[in-house]
Specification:
Structural class: alpha+beta
Protein name: NADH:ubiquinone oxidoreductase intermediate-associated protein 30 domain-containing protein
Number of domains: 2
CATH class of the largest domain: Mainly Beta
Number of helices: 7
Number of strands: 15
Subcellular location: Mitochondrion
Largest sheet: 7 strands, antiparallel
GO molecular function: unfolded protein binding
Strand content: 25-35%
Keywords: Chaperone, Mitochondrion
CATH architecture of the largest domain: Sandwich
Helix content: 10-25%
Organism: Penicillium cosmopolitanum
Distance between the termini: 54 Å
CATH topology of the largest domain: Jelly Rolls
Amino acid sequence: MIPTRRLASQAGFFRRSAEELGRLSKIALNAEGLHTPTKAYTLLDFEDSSSVEGCKTMADRVVGGFSTASLDYDPGLPSANIPPHARFHGKISTKLPSNFRVDRTGYAAFRNQDRGVWLFGRLYWDLDPYSYLALRIKSDGRRYTVNIQTDSIVDTDIHQHRLYTRHHRVRGTPTAPLRNPSESREHINEMYPHGRPDALSDTPPESTIISSSSSATTSGSTGWETVLLPLTSFVRTNFGYVVEPQTSIMRNRVKSIGIGLTDRIDGPFDLRIHKIWATNGMDEHDAAEDKLICGAHALPVDEGVRTGWAASKLLEKEAEKETGEQQTSQTKKKGLQGLRSEWDE
């Protein structure tokens, strides 16, 4: 691809190209493509105000609704270990407009804008080598969803996962899940014809690293936490409805990542986001930063990341060696006649 004058004149084209070439060169020099990455891959770092400016907000106001959504940069308070971050806030309203064609409102969301182009075409995130999407957030306890959009055949397809959190204020009784009283059984059956997927349920599935807390307050905690969501657990949806057949995320061609609120509960919302990244587990650098920001509830270092999964690789080699020895032993016992009988079976 040869950059034309019009293409080269786009803001940040050469900067994006240099950054991506530098990143890929580093991967090649370190031979990172030959093993599971132990370093995190930062996608959106809201310590930089430009990351906030590079995002767009959406709400039902575009169809005549009354919900509002804003994404603002908050410089934080370093002396109190509150990092610079993005504040996603606004108000959800389920009031219907006079337009008779609109029969459902009450949503707000944000995502990063198109990442643009570089020397070799459109720029995507390649998350193929990673197992988790990590988010460091401070939640108000509402039912947010994490949205991933890829360069799929259907442009409007979005893979979603509920943002389960531990340290937040749960509305209602301490043990009651946050439910939307306006959701009818008919609507739920329409949205989830094959049943509500685990990743979108009101209670976190076992595969989710961070689970919800039954605590009604955040006393004794900073309120910040790091959530790890398995990329294999995201559910394919289209305009909020689960669609079939389910397909895995095209991890090597991720266009955008964002967070939405579609619980349709009237009232204000406030979610703080420090950083979003792809990872295979917490390394020492991430764990140290997590402890500084999240306090006593920080995630520990993943032993697999610390050792480069050396122990598991050793076990795999020993298992392969043992299997090979067993096969050799059986072959010697059977001889050529035994091999011929196996072939004929």
